[in-house]
Structure formats: C-alpha cells, structure tokens
Amino acid sequence: MTANRIPLSQLERGIPFEQRHIGPDGAAQAKMLAQVGYGSLDELTAAAVPDVIKSAEALDLPAARSEAEVLAELKSLAERNQVLGSMIGLGYYGTFTPPVILRNVMENPSWYTAYTPYQPEISQGRLEALLNFQTMVAELTGLPTSGASLLDEGTAAAEAMALSRRVGKVKNGVYVVDADALPQTIAVIETRAEPTGVEIVVADLSEGLPAEVAERGVVGVLVQYPGASGVVRDIKPVIDQAHELGAIVTVAADLLALTLLTSPGDLGADIAIGTTQRFGVPMGFGGPHAGYMAVREKFARSLPGRLVGVSVDADGNKAYRLALQTREQHIRREKATSNICTAQVLLAVMAGMYAVYHGPDGLKSIARRTHRYATLLAAGLTAGGVEVVHGAYFDTLTVRVPGKAAEAVSAAREGGVNLRLVDADHVSLACDETTTRAQLGAVWSAFGVEADIEALDAEVQDTLPDGLLREDEYLAHPVFHQYRSETAMLRYLRALADRDYALDRGMIPLGSCTMKLNATTEMEPVTWPEFGQLHPFAPAEQAQGYLTLIRELEERLAEVTGYDKVSLQPNAGSQGELAGLLAVRGYHRANGDEQRTVCLIPSSAHGTNAASAVMAGMKVVVVKTADDGEVDIEDLRAKIEQYAEQLSVLMITYPSTHGVFEEHVADICAAVHDAGGQVYVDGANLNALVGLAKPGRFGGDVSHLNLHKTFCIPHGGGGPGVGPVGVREHLAPYLPNHPLQSAAGPETGVGPISAAPWGSAGILPISWAYVRLMGGEGLKRATQVAVLSANYIAKRLEPHFPVLYNGPGGLVAHECIVDLRPLSKATGVSIDDVAKRLIDYGFHAPTMSFPVAGTFMIEPTESEDIDELDRFCDAMIAIRGEIERVATGEWAADDNPLRNAPHTAGMLGGEWEHAYSREEGVFPAGVVASDKYWPPVRRIDQAFGDRNLVCSCPPLDAYEG
C-alpha cells in the first residue's frame, strides 16, 4: 500500500518560513485565543484594531518564498555588485576581519541578539567589551574619556559641534570646519547646524584661522588629521590659536594613523572624533560602523551617547554598567544633551576586539605596512613624472595630472582598482590593510608609469614628519596583550558571551523594543564579500545589486506603511526622527511658514521624540495624557488653538506608548491638519500595524520605522539599527540627500543625515529578506500573533498584577503595561527588585518605569512560542507569591529573595545568613539546575559608579581592597 500522493510543487515548497518565524503553532494559537476569548486571529484583531484605521486591502507584496529561494535571489543580487580594489578612502577602507572575530562576534547570536545593557548584571560581557573599546579610543586619541560609540564619523562630528556649544565660553560666534575635512562630514555638520542657528564657516586652516573669521568670534573648530587630501601637517598651531580665541577644538582623527602619529590630546585637542571602521569592520556600502568620541576629563559628564563605567556589586566586586544614565531621554526629554539612541555596539565590540587581538604592536605593524604602500606608490608615481601634491602623508595621496584626472581614474578602474576623482586635475588614492602589490602596479599603469616595487622599497624612506611621530606608549592594559593565539581569543570571546543574556538564551520581553527572531537566513548575506566589501562611494554601475535591493526595500516599506516615498539613509531610529522633522521643517519653510516651529508631543511619548525636535530647531510643547493612556483630546485642542499660527507638527506614537490602539487617532490627525500642521507617527510600535493598518493612510504625513524592531535587524547589544523615514508626496522633496551620491535623495533635500548615502546599507539585506520570506499574508499574521501574545500575557497576569491600560474590548495592542505601584507601596518591594529577581528565573526584565514609573511594559513579539510565554507568566506569578510572603512578614522587607536578587553562583558557598534558603534564592520555582543562567555579578551600585566615574580599563590594582 502506498502513501497518499502529494504534488511535487507542494513538496518543493517545504515548510513555509512563516512557521519558522512565528513561535506559536496552530494548536498553541487556539489555546491562546481561548484564553483571550476569541475564536480566530481575524476575530481578535477585528475587535482590537479600531475600524477607522483598518486597511481594506491586502498588502501588495511579492508572494512569500522559501529560505533557499530567497538566498538564491540575494546571491543573484550580490553578483550584480562588482567589488574592485578600493583606493577611494574618505573614511572607508578595506580591512581584514580576523575570522575568529567574524565567526564569534559578528555571526554569533550571543552577541548580535542582545539588547542595550540597561540591565547591567546580565550584560557584563558586552560591557567589558565596550570598556575595551573606550580604552582603545581614549589611549589612541590621548584623551581620557571615550564614549561607548556613536553612529559614524559625520554624526560624531555634528555631536562634537553641539558639545562645543554647550561647554564652550563663546556663545555667539561661528563654528569653523577645516576645508580638508571629509566632504560628507562637512555636509552632515551643515545639515545639523542649520536648524539650530549655528553658522558654519568652511576654511583653509593650513596657515591657521583666517583673520576675518577669528574677528567674528569662534565657538569651535574642527580639524581633520590627517586631512581628506592625505596631508599630515602639524595642527598644534591652529589648536593653540583657537584656544586663544576661547574656542573648543575637535580633531577628526584616523585611529590607525594615531598608532604612529602624535595623538590629538598631546596636540591640545579638547575633543577627538572619527570612525573605527578600518579596525576590522567591513565597509558594507557605508555601514554600520562605530563612530567614536573622546573628550578631556572636564567634559566627561557632558559626553553625548552612552558611557560604560566601572562600579561595584553588592559584595564589593568590580562590575560594569552604563554611567550617567540620567541623561537617558526618557528622563531629560527636551533638555537632553543628545540622543542616546546613537550607538553601534556590535561594531564597537568588533573594533575593540580587533585591537585586543592585534595589540599595540600588531596595530602599529598594520599602520606601518599601510604607510609603506602609500610611500612606495608615491615614489613610483613621482619617478614617472606624476606630481604628488603633499610631501607628508599617512595612507592617502593626492596627485595632480592637469586635464587627465578622469582618464587616469577610468584606466585604473579597467585595471581593477577604484580611485577618487577629486576634480579635472586631481586624483586621490588611499592605501589600507588590504592593498596589494598588484594594485600598486595597476595604479602605476593607469598613470602611464612603470616602477619596480622591490627597487623602490630598497631606496625610499617613509614620509611621516619626525616632529609628529608618536613617542608615548598606549594599550598597555593586559587585555591588549594576552589574547594573541586564536585559541586564547576564542575562549575570551566565549567567556564574555557566557556572561550575557541574549535572545539565544530566552525571551527579552521589552515593551517598545520588539525583540523578535533575527533569522539566520536573513543574517547570512551580510557577510558575503559582494555586500560587505563595497565602498559607499564606488561608481553606481558597480553597485547595481545593492541599488536594486535598496529600491525594492524602499518600495515595499512604502507599501507596508502607506507612504509615497521612503529614505533608508537614517542609520538609527533617532536619526529617522530627525530626518522626518527636518522634512516637515523644509516643507513649512518652502511654503513661507517659517514661524511654524512648535512641536506638540504627548507626555507619554518616547523621550527621543523631544530630543529630536530640539535638534530640528523646534520648540517642544507637551500635551497631557488622559487617565486611560490616550492623548488628552481637550488639552490637545487647547494647545492647537493656542499655537495655531506656530504649529509645525504633532508627534504621536501609534499604537500609543501605553500599548493601546487609540480610537480617536483620525480625529487627532484631522485637528492638526485643520490648523496647518503635520502629523508625525512614531513607528516604534509598527509591529502592531503591519498588514492591518497603514499610518500613511489614517492621517500620518511622516513616520520613521525601526528596521531593528519590526523588520528583524538585530539590536546588536545596543546597535546597529536602521531608522528609515517614510513621507507623503508633499514632503518627499525634503528627504535627506548626499553630496557624493545624487541618487541617494532629492536635489531639494535637507542634506545628509548620516555620513553614507544609504546609511547602514550593509544590513539592509536582513529586512529585504524578511519581507521576501514572509510575503504580505505572512507579515499580517506575524502582527496578529504579536497582538495575540500580548493579550495572552495580559490575561494571564491580570489576576496578579493590574494591567494599566486597555483599548477597545478590554484588549491591548502588541504590548501591555502591568502596574506594580500598589504592591511596592504596600510591601516596599520595588520595580528594581522584581526586575533583578526575574534574572534568577532566567529572564531579561521588561521595560521598566516607562512610560509610567513603577510599571513593566511587556512585549512578547510573535516569535516566542507558548512554552516561553508560559514560562515568563509562571515566573511573574511566582514572584507575586514571593511578594506576598514579604507582605505577610514571613520575609523581612530588607532581606528577601527579591531585595537580594540576582543571586550568583558564588553565593552558594560559605555561610548563608538569609531567612530564605539557598534553593529558594538560586533555584526558584520552575528553574532547572542544568539549564540555569548564572549572572556573573550581584546587584550593581549605580550611584557609586556615578560618583566615582571610571570609564576605561583601570589597572588591576585599582580593585584591591
């Protein structure tokens, strides 16, 4: 007897990817629906989602394809990219990622699926890695305090400009930028300066500050070192001159060059910024890469972004944590000094580990090799009659070939090497770690030169100026000396990963952060050389695969959101917010409404909203939130009436930050439009809308999306992210553009938001693959299951913890808020106590005290299966029982498993002086010893770390006693 016939076409399709991505299967969904009280996903979302926002039509997207088919399609796109030897430079260089770092960091879910380390006890591994990064940057720049990374060099320069204004004594002068700075850096600074009223002067600083500029008052100066042209010059005279004028001086420095050249700190700089891309991070057509900033000690507490510090835990042991967290925008809002969502943790870890693996001697050797290639290249060109403009350089040459520059660039391209066409008479050529002898030969041939590299090597001296050679030691800490073998490095990376909690261990139920599956199929193409090794300024004809992928992703995101045009340039959600608000500002100004500068923001909004509005030159006016968590309509109407002529935009999050679908959203949008304003719909919660509703259709004029939330790019321990911006047609002329790539945006655009034309293009294949794997129906079902999972958790927890806000039918959207305030008031058990106790149960805590103090915001996503959802609910219910034991007096308020959480393995030994047993502390209900996650440290003393700010690898004896 034979089995029933199954058509070949069905067998070929295999298991749909949707079933791999969505955690609960059909049976589990039925059980969850029964708990919530609905018969189907459609019935549930029909009740939860207000009719006024629902989309009538299905998403018009290509049908879902299998994982094998999508990988083949991506391979076909990759093959349309042509990877030539890159000598374009301008801050992007070929680099060799040590395979031990590529495999065990970049391709390792223990590193790339982790969240921002706001729960430091379960983030000790990546915090140590970031401290290594900070130490590397601080010591190479010669400045004592470095942040834990910024987005890229261009935006780091813009942050330095803002920092100079905040801390400097001169308040009304100009900001001077070196004419030999990277052109994209100049453009990003100009984009960021214009809305805030800062006047930028681009000047030739080779002979110091021009007198006519100095007379106007100078807030700050940015100098490139080495210059974009490649020249290495002594910048100390211009630094001294700027200081005499009271200006703050920033040096944009190449870290590899700083292994050989005098550091910016020793030259007198106040701030150093740049990129760490060439420390083992692929170019990726522009990103993601970790920018850096280091400052003098007196500016440490004004440093933008994140800062890893050293503190102690409850036993007095060394422990790492994010320092100065009160700068978090959820707290400071419109008074924030910067936007904290500006980090590239995964890439910072890679760059820091590159330094750990190579050590100071290895880095210096790579730098010397790079400089040697540039020296021999210059010598061969000079001998052949080609003029090399500068006599001192590190890795980049500018050559003068009157009227023949384009011809030389074209000939080099034919020989397999990309050079940079500066103008009709000049060509720029940059060497790097990957430069080969064959490439030098191809360049010489392109200029009509014949040279013998061996003969040149025997005769030619290096060209770095003796007076600028570095003499001090750096990277002396043991971490930069003890992991030279691959075995040692492998074990170090494993040891750090084992200290952390990421999605490869269990659910991270963070509200608003959407910690969902980052599928391996989606991740795999990122490291393909056809995507990873392409320079962002390579000729467009060499990037046809990338450009096709970018165009298709833009079109599909526009379809999902209902907008007319999408820009992928913003390389973080915060940058997407800024780009959207600048588009609104550009639209009003084009209409002659320059007075429209008021941005209305509900009090419950993400803190980044207010910070972005200030950066866009707007005045923030807060709108009240009603008792049910929705926008207070009466207060909104009053504010609209009060600021009718000045109203620029309303920023709302939908579903609301309180986790509900607001029924009045269409009325809200209409009221703003009637007053002449625009509506910005924050896309942070788009995971509750995809396939069900489109913000561009229910009243939004502009939204940023979070590809690292809704569209599966991993959080990477706190970055990378991508925050594209979608707009209606009338705002499209004011999207970002780029001075070096006309196809990146409209000619009438606001300028570049990030340094690269398409931002973090290297990780766009992830989101492209996700949409292609799921198709329209799969994306819709993912949204429906996300809503189901949130409601399932809400229903299970509601008898034990009040669910703070509900929408139609008593339902929540894709997340729910549970209120611990009554319990805290009655028992003294704090939200922190519960968060840390969850670690003992094997969980990362939900989002704490946002948007309401003393609450948890829980978002399970669609990717977690019912077993994990139940495990979490069981843990929360068990913790509720533990709180009751405190309430009854069985456990003292100051000595119980919650107050002492988390419990480490070290607590199992020695004396036990607590009223509860060791087993109750370390193996609470449902925790199996064989699967136990052990936090490496006990609860960390945050205040101690802020009072005693240590932000680089301290000497080991600093911890004695």
TrEMBL record:
<feature type="modified residue" description="N6-(pyridoxal phosphate)lysine">
    <location>
        <position position="709"/>
    </location>
</feature>
<feature type="domain" description="Glycine dehydrogenase C-terminal">
    <location>
        <begin position="782"/>
        <end position="903"/>
    </location>
</feature>
<feature type="coiled-coil region">
    <location>
        <begin position="626"/>
        <end position="653"/>
    </location>
</feature>
<dbReference type="InterPro" id="IPR049315">
    <property type="entry name" value="GDC-P_N"/>
</dbReference>
<comment type="similarity">
    <text>Belongs to the GcvP family.</text>
</comment>
<dbReference type="InterPro" id="IPR015422">
    <property type="entry name" value="PyrdxlP-dep_Trfase_small"/>
</dbReference>
<keyword id="KW-0560">Oxidoreductase</keyword>
<dbReference type="Pfam" id="PF02347">
    <property type="entry name" value="GDC-P"/>
</dbReference>
<comment type="subunit">
    <text>The glycine cleavage system is composed of four proteins: P, T, L and H.</text>
</comment>
<keyword id="KW-0175">Coiled coil</keyword>
<dbReference type="InterPro" id="IPR049316">
    <property type="entry name" value="GDC-P_C"/>
</dbReference>
<dbReference type="InterPro" id="IPR003437">
    <property type="entry name" value="GcvP"/>
</dbReference>
<dbReference type="GO" id="GO:0004375">
    <property type="term" value="F:glycine dehydrogenase (decarboxylating) activity"/>
</dbReference>
<dbReference type="InterPro" id="IPR015421">
    <property type="entry name" value="PyrdxlP-dep_Trfase_major"/>
</dbReference>
<dbReference type="InterPro" id="IPR020581">
    <property type="entry name" value="GDC_P"/>
</dbReference>
<dbReference type="Pfam" id="PF21478">
    <property type="entry name" value="GcvP2_C"/>
</dbReference>
<feature type="domain" description="Glycine cleavage system P-protein N-terminal">
    <location>
        <begin position="19"/>
        <end position="447"/>
    </location>
</feature>
<dbReference type="InterPro" id="IPR015424">
    <property type="entry name" value="PyrdxlP-dep_Trfase"/>
</dbReference>
<comment type="function">
    <text>The glycine cleavage system catalyzes the degradation of glycine. The P protein binds the alpha-amino group of glycine through its pyridoxal phosphate cofactor; CO(2) is released and the remaining methylamine moiety is then transferred to the lipoamide cofactor of the H protein.</text>
</comment>
<keyword id="KW-0663">Pyridoxal phosphate</keyword>
<feature type="domain" description="Glycine cleavage system P-protein N-terminal">
    <location>
        <begin position="454"/>
        <end position="736"/>
    </location>
</feature>
<protein>
    <recommendedName>
        <fullName>Glycine dehydrogenase (decarboxylating)</fullName>
        <ecNumber>1.4.4.2</ecNumber>
    </recommendedName>
</protein>
